[in-house]
Amino acid sequence: MMIARHIISLSLVALLLTACVGSSPTEPSPTPVPLPATSPPSPTATLLLPEVDFSSLSGEIKIDGSSTVFPITERVALAFNELSPQVTIRLGVSGTGGGFSRFCAGETDISNASRPIKQSEMETCTANGITFVELPVAFDGLSVVVHPQNDWVQCLTVAELKRMWSPEAETVITRWNQIRADWPDAPLHLYGAGTDSGTYDYFTSAIVGQEGISRRDYTASEDDYLLAQDVAGDQFGLGFFGYAYYAEYADRLRAVAIDNGNGCVAPSIETISNGQYQPLARPIFIYVRADRLARAEVRTFVDLYLQNGSLFASQALYVPLPSTAYELALRRVERRRTGSIFSGGSQVGLSIEQLLQLEDR
């Protein structure tokens, strides 16, 4: 059985960031998770500010969803709370699927998502009278990582990853030398995103070939910090999660290059940005309830996010989108353009250029 660990990440600073609490069955337990060892720059340094009186804002903004998007949204929340401390921001992590469950039930204002919303989730939102504005905020490259003492794995083909993670591998592929005969006869310990995670959806779609389908005998969590710590403590471990978490733990982990048929390519800002790191590069999003944009504190938060999208994405160690993408997103907010530009679910192989073409329609 999969070892599912649903947790919530709490910002442990004196800025009113607290855990979301609700009745949703997908909601995580309030187990604190450490923030990155390095502190972000001064939250409001060099920011472009919306033309609004921040001191006049009040109320509460509820956000939940993807642990992948969490580091970006957290930085926005820190900056916003410094500018407008009278607004309470409740920021939770229950995975993309868990976040959409709460969002479409009307429990949150903004949902972090590491994949586009699924058709079934859109139908739930519609049934509950929830309309949304879909906003890409950065590009990510899912990183496959191992312990630094693992000196045998430098590159994996997509076919080898599929052999590790397919349902047929469950209880069968359990040792490294079953992947390549010259690798050690040692246990293969797998760590990855839980089933409520958009990262799980994307990885299974890109690697296994079907979204939401994989072996179940691995250690799973919707929190990427825990996964990074797990692999960092396991010489025989292999895991996958968002690029920012690999970059944060780069002194304790090693990224494996991926061969998609065009040679081995390791994840980096450059290879994610230029489209070489495939099929594991992907856009990441926030979804905002359209009716909540009428609330000044929510609209200002979203404007601050997008006007400084490149800075916040870079601070969180992700790949910023071109300035045109953020301008198009701001236009979508201004026009209250609702719905998704995607067919629903993971979009494997999408490049930044293709995303821009979709955004500009």
Overview of this structure, please?
There is one protein chain. This protein is of the alpha/beta class and 361 residues long. The protein is 31% helix and 19% strand. The chain has helices at residues 70-83, 95-104, 119-127, 158-165, 198-208, 224-232, 243-248, 269-273, 296-307, 309-315, 323-335, 352-359; strands at residues 3-5, 17-18, 59-65, 87-91, 110-113, 132-141, 143-146, 155-157, 189-193, 219-221, 237-241, 254-255, 257-259, 264-265, 281-289. The strands form 3 sheets. The chain has a 6-stranded mixed sheet. Strand 9, helix 5 and strand 10 form a beta-alpha-beta unit. Helix 2 (95-104) runs parallel beside helix 3.
Q: Give the N-to-C terminal Cα separation.
A: 44 Å
Give the full name of the CATH homologous superfamily of the largest domain. Periplasmic binding protein-like II
CATH architecture of the largest domain: 3-Layer(aba) Sandwich
**Which overall shape is indicated by the principal axes computed on the Cα atoms?**
elongated
Any idea of the CATH topology of the largest domain? Answer: D-Maltodextrin-Binding Protein, domain 2
Number of strands: 15
Counting helices, strands and paired strands, the structural category is: alpha/beta
How much β-strand is present in the residues? 15-25%
Strand ordering within the main sheet: 1-10-9-11-7-12
Integer average pLDDT = 88
The helix fraction, in percent, is: 25-40%
Count of helical segments? 12
User: What would CATH call the class of the largest domain?
Assistant: Alpha Beta
Low-confidence stretches: 1-38
Q: Strand count, sense and closure of the main sheet?
A: 6 strands, mixed
What is the alpha-carbon Rg in Å? 20 Å
GO biological process, one term: phosphate ion transport
Pfam families: PBP_like_2
Protein name: Phosphate-binding protein
InterPro entries: PBP_domain, Phos-bd, Phosphate_ABC_transporter
